[in-house]
What does this fold into?
Amino acid sequence: MSVNLGQLAATTLQNYRRKMVDNIFKKNVLLNHMMENGGVEYEDGGRQIVAPLMYAENETVMAFSGSDNLDVTPQEEIDAALYDWKMYNVAVSFTKEDELKNRGKSAIIKLIKKKIINAEMSLRSRLNNDLFNGAASNTKEITGLQTAVDTGTYGSIAGATYSWWQSYKETTSEALSIAKIRTGRNTVNNGEGGGMCSIMVTTQTLHEKYEALLSATLQINPVVSKETKRLGDAGFSAIQFAGVPVVFDEACPTGEFYFLNTENLKLTIHKDANFEVIEKAEPANQHVSISHIMVMLNTTVDRRKSLGKLTAKTA
It folds into this structure.
């Protein structure tokens, strides 16, 4: 029986798409935390992603009595960070040779599923790596945490110029300590308009170092938090500090320890390019059937001071 390989591949990919998207977010610890705690949002377009932000207090607040004149001085306390959209694509292709070597619909379906799972794994790995390291050498990538959680330019705003657009960053080259973790957490939790630290992400080496530092006297909150338990149940190695999950990700750069929250840090995805499946016509000069999986997104932050990191830390 003749099989339309391209049509069958596109249909199978469309049917698998929902599971594929779930796997991308469920199988990487930071993406998993963001998806389950409001850290992923969807926009419907625009040349750039615009994130309104508050950078100063309204100074017209005053105590008064009777007929006192009220302060009506115009205030400039609202600005916006601008983020460029970034696009990723992975192609799932099949040759006529593939079709001939895998005769019959069941054999071809098995081949298609293997290729789709491989594409999913490849896309997931790249996105997770770029979530930490992206845009360092390729401006087409999403902006990773190394840039977002820092003090330099991000979102078209110069952190070097505006202190309110600087993350907490501690750079002393030394062994990881409870004291530095405590200071980092307390610092990012300070101030109005920011979310509380909801997750700490580091390397496997520093995660094991922190675990070794734990003792009964250092467990500020020995009761396991709901999110720490959820991450553990999802298969991730999650311990905690003062109720905040401490996890590791293989993509996290050596020596770094992040303090993040899903209120101020988002992964923003274009709702019409949310891992969409695109079928292409067979090339005129090749016997190849191709389908694409495409996503348009970027990391966005609306209050940088609510995020932080330790760098140059060792075990």
User: Anything to note?
Assistant: The first strand starts at residue 40 and ends at 43. Residues 176 and 261 are 21 Å apart (CA to CA). Residues 105-133 form the longest helix (29 residues). The chain has eight helices and 15 strands.
